[in-house]
Amino acid sequence: MFSAGTAIRSESGVTAVEFALLLPFFTILLFGIIEFGQVLFLQAALQHAVTEAARCATISGAAGSTPDCSSAGNVATYATTQAYGIAVAASAFSTSNASGFNCVNASYPFNISIPLMPAINLTLTAKSCYPA
């Protein structure tokens, strides 16, 4: 039998209790790092797509050239092929020609979902301009 003094000084199970208390925080930290890495990757892929599309609009502006970036729709379609790792619609890209620059903008919605946390909605944006 245990006496009251022995039960108070007993340390069996302390590790399990500490683990149970810290597990939610470590889970949030781990999945937060993973989601942050995804956001960085998607932002880099989106920026690459708009950069290449703006370059295409400047360099190969003739209809029938490869790649054909003679219209805004063709530029958006080309941008979707350059967005590596993202399934993004051509409607996410917009083009403009202001002050002698071919500019391509993109907007991509992203939902951050971390266990034990409310969902966070982000909109990733990218813009690139090349001289016309």
Would you kindly provide a written description of the structure presented here, covering whatever features stand out?
With 132 residues, this protein is of the alpha+beta class. The protein has one domain. Helix content is 48%, strand content 23%. It is built from three helices and three strands. It has helices spanning 4-9, 14-59, 72-82; strands at residues 93-98, 101-112, 120-131. A three-stranded antiparallel β-sheet has the order 1-2-3. Strand 2 (101-112) and strand 3 (120-131) form a beta hairpin. Helix 2 packs antiparallel against helix 3. The longest helix has 46 residues, at 14-59. It is rod-shaped and about 90 Å long. The termini are far apart.
Helix/strand structural class: alpha+beta
How much strand content do the residues show?
Answer: 15-25%
Order of helices and strands: HHHEEE
Biggest sheet record = 3 strands, antiparallel
The rounded distance between the terminal residues' Cα atoms is 88 Å
Helical amount: 40-55%
- Arrangement of strands in the largest sheet: 1-2-3
How many domains? 1
Q: What overall geometry do the principal axes of the alpha carbons give?
A: rod-shaped
> What is the overall pLDDT average?
88
**β-strand number:** 3
Low-pLDDT runs of 5+ residues are none
Radius of gyration: 26 Å
Give the number of helices: 3
